[in-house]
## 1
Amino acid sequence: MITPPTLPPADGTAFPTPPNTNDPDNFDPRADAAFAAMGPLQTEFQAAKANVHVNAQSAYDNALESQASKTAAAASEANIAALSNFKGTWAGLAGALAKPASVFHAGAFWMLLNNLADVTTSQPGVSADWQVVGGAWPIVYINTDTAAVPWTTYVFTGACTLTAPAITGNGKQIGIDVLPGVTGAIFAPAGADKTRGASGAQPIDAPFKVILRDSGATYGWI
């Protein structure tokens, strides 16, 4: 939400005429009046400084939100372009496929991210060439060590490690569901990547269900 600006403080009392050595007769009373005004003036300066800081912070936050809105709008535009170029079911396609394009596969609609020389070699839900844009994610049941791909829900039915794809900060997501009674479920970020700011593999206690999002290098999967 855009933060509105903060009203500036009220205009303070005018500063009195300062003392002047060319006017010795009025120097002392004017000096006394100037010094007496310094206290209120300091308070007014502090209020103005605080107001400038608050509005500068608001302007910065609004700029970040505007950039995020611009990014979201671009993503929406790409989704619309892909969906308007719907090619049918992925299993029914062959040969080259270029963006923008979308297909239906495994209960979900997928947007093509990269041009393909042979669409049959790049399966939605398995390849990073696709991003889900509607419908349900594919569900993969695992009980052996598995390398995860984005936009897929992995259901642990036994002890194993799910290794995440590398963090790139692009917002990709992974679903995790550990069924009741399952032990030995482990989520492992790739290399030095993190999970909610923590490095290394993370054991998962059942039952557990979450959708993790690639937030970038600082916090990793959150």
## 2
Amino acid sequence: MAVAAAALLVLGAMPPSGPAQTGGVRVGQGAGGGDRNPAPGRDDRDTSAQDEQDGRGEQGRPGRWPTSGPGRFTAAAGESPIQGAGGPVRRYRVLVERDIGQDADAVAAVVDEALGDPRSWIASGELRVQRVASAADADFTVYLATPVTSERMCALGGLSTERYTSCRLPGQVIINLARWMEAVPDYGASLAVYRAYVVNHEVGHEFGELHESCPGPGEPAPVMQQQTYGLDGCVANPWPYLDGARYAGEPTAGT
């Protein structure tokens, strides 16, 4: 069995204008997209003297997850099969911040499942996806990072997450651990559905997609709707393709 490669990111030691290196992937270059501003009345900032607070391992099941971590990442081992029927292969790595109680290979399996689903972006027939272990082979990297670390990473690209949301920078999909562990209030679907949504939403930005709006009450939410902020009357949906066709809402302002 391949041994997971360690990718190091020490955010606290970076000069303000210098991107860090994580196994050859540059962190913090350029603008990006994603659910990147705080939802009203919500903030995952730690208000105690400690760097941990109570979280939820699943919706409705108490657990614990750290709000900050070492800023060092471990890459998932091995590679996945190529998923999709046609088009160029977009290769990605999965990196998980160390000491946060999440196994990199287990997280990678969730990402692989979301991106390899026939309702995901591969349904277009215009691209395929594959997870790889080597930074040199990857087109982009999916990070799972604590709220503090993800905030710092996103801020390097000029995005504000207030430790609450996830974001995407060029070549970097940065998923907030808090959202990974507990989704968002009143989402109306399982944690597994939210995880598939946040992966497909942020990777959608990497594939050039912009934000979209809810098409109407009771309709599925487009995957590029900012579902982290609320559904606006729509129903939670993690997929860009439904019934074999691209499902989208009207474009919204911004990225």
